[in-house]
Design goal:
CATH topology of the largest domain: Rossmann fold
Number of domains: 2
Mean pLDDT: 91
Largest sheet: 9 strands, mixed
Low-confidence stretches: none
Strand order of the largest sheet: 9-8-7-6-2-3-1-10-11
CATH class of the largest domain: Alpha Beta
CATH architecture of the largest domain: 3-Layer(aba) Sandwich
Number of strands: 19
Structural class: alpha/beta
Length: 469
């Protein structure tokens, strides 16, 4: 049985797909102005400092499963039916509605129903009971009932709940994740997308994987845009060859071999416009257990790496653990020292969107080459056809990186605001010649996509990591 000791060092978050959120909204809206309830199942996703309860499937009530009397109550037969459907490793969720918007508190009746009537029965699954409350604007509040003694259960509040689909809808606990004050430095930014979007942007925990030419610019742009919670992941140090394309890097950083995450963290602290800023840096690879767990602490991730293997892992995380991934890439064709052509592309992967493989932005053959170490073999790369060598050997020039980083940050603003006029839904590709942006309005995964099949599974991804070195 998982008890309090397993959770006391973890922040709690809850996540569900946009499809699940819409299904719950339809169910609860049918009952207005009457409160209603339903059961669901959830799976735990453990990061480094956060545990996310991922909603797996909804078990809607049938006739006679609940009584509606202003409030709503469930029958014993409904509880038994719901418990019988909980798969191994998963737990039970009770979701009920309130007749107001935003993050909802709990009445004494709510506490009795969850703590006294359900928590003990749900504990038989080996995973604590999760409670959710739906608000009329589609917001959710959440809590976990963890065992603190024989027959005793204590409430642990979630810091936030995210609904991940074509947009990222975030609801925050008003005390655990309070609004960040907006001061004079952000007046112009707020005037563009409004107080609500800014409040969500400022409180979201944003991860950046890769702090080189694109990631370092993304980090500064987000800091100046009022983002206040960062997770930075990169295993490399600053060298002389990085100085022409890494925001915030100095000559002395190259001499001392300062970690790229340290440079980015310093630059964030120097340039942030939020009242305060929190930066968690990991000087290591995403392809380690600690690197992966740091990524799982995030509400959204920026993929700013140019290697196929970590991009494959991020692509998997976006579906299995419901963390949208904003990804971009640069292709520059240079012949005899002359730039012939350059493209860059930006896209967001996650539920209700096509994955990087289905978009054609990631080739599984390249992933296998990276996993076997062949992309580090210059003799192997030299023997590839020109079109494959160009795809693997991307050239990052600061002017190109600025374009990619700018569009990636706009993808985040569009994702959180739900305003498709900011970034659209599908991938965007800029062609330096003839100087135009082409856009695919919306995309979904191809039939039988293995990444899409992992959606909301909270799959253990440690088999995708590098061996310990």
């Amino acid at each position: 049985m998982i008890d309090k000791s397993h959770f006391e060092h973890f922040e709690l978050s809850v996540a569900m797909t946009g499809e699940t959120g819409s299904a719950l909204g339809s169910h609860f809206n049918e009952a207005r102005p009457q409160e209603d309830l339903t059961f669901a199942t959830w799976r735990p996703s453990f990061g480094s400092g956060r545990m996310t309860a991922i909603i797996d499937s909804v078990i809607l009530p049938a006739e006679g499963d609940r009584v509606q009397h202003g409030n709503a109550s469930f029958s014993g037969s409904y509880v038994r039916r719901a418990l019988s459907t909980v798969p191994p490793g998963a737990g039970l969720v009770l979701i009920h509605s309130h007749l107001g918007p935003g993050w909802q508190g709990m009445s004494q009746d709510d506490v009795v129903a969850e703590r006294d009537r359900l928590a003990g029965a749900a504990s038989g699954c080996g995973v604590p009971l999760l409670g959710l409350t739906w608000g009329t604007d589609g917001s959710f509040s959440g809590r976990l009932w963890v065992r603190v003694g024989r027959g005793q259960y204590e409430r642990q509040e979630a810091a936030n709940v995210r609904v991940v689909g074509e947009r990222l809808h975030l609801t925050f606990h008003r005390h655990l994740r309070p609004k960040v004050a907006v001061g004079p430095p952000l007046v112009s930014t707020v005037s563009v997308w409004g107080d609500t979007t800014q409040a969500d942007l400022s409180r979201a925990r944003v991860g950046i994987v890769g702090l080189g030419s694109v990631g370092s610019v993304v980090a500064e742009a987000l800091a100046r845009s009022g983002v206040s919670r960062f997770v930075l992941i990169d295993p490399d140090v600053i060298e002389d060859r990085n100085l022409d394309r890494t925001a915030g890097a100095r000559r002395e950083d190259a001499v001392a071999g300062v970690a790229k995450v340290a440079v980015a963290a310093r630059n964030i602290r120097d340039s942030h416009t939020a009242e305060s800023v929190e930066v968690a840096s990991y000087f290591g690879t995403l392809l380690s257990e600690e690197g992966l767990r740091r990524a799982l602490d995030c509400d959204v991730l920026f993929s700013c790496v140019d290697r196929p293997w970590p991009r494959h892992l991020l692509n998997t995380v976006s579906y299995a653990h419901l963390i949208p991934v904003i990804d971009g890439g640069i292709l520059a064709v240079v012949t005899s020292g002359r730039l012939v052509h350059a493209d860059w592309r930006v896209h967001t992967a996650g539920p209700d969107r096509a994955c990087l493989v289905c978009l054609g932005a990631l080739d599984m053959g390249d992933v296998q080459l990276d996993m076997t170490g062949k992309l580090d073999d210059p003799d192997y790369i030299q023997g590839l056809p020109d079109h494959l060598r160009e795809r693997i050997g991307r050239r990052n020039v600061y002017a190109f990186s600025l374009g990619v980083a700018g569009h990636e940050v706009l993808h985040l603003a569009g994702l959180i605001s739900g305003n498709t006029r900011i970034s659209g839904i599908g991938p965007q590709t800029y062609h330096c010649y003839p100087g135009e942006m082409t856009v695919i309005p919306t995309t979904t995964c191809l039939s039988g996509c293995p990444f899409c099949a992992l959606t909301a599974s909270a799959a253990d991804l440690r088999g995708n990591l590098e061996p310990f070195r």
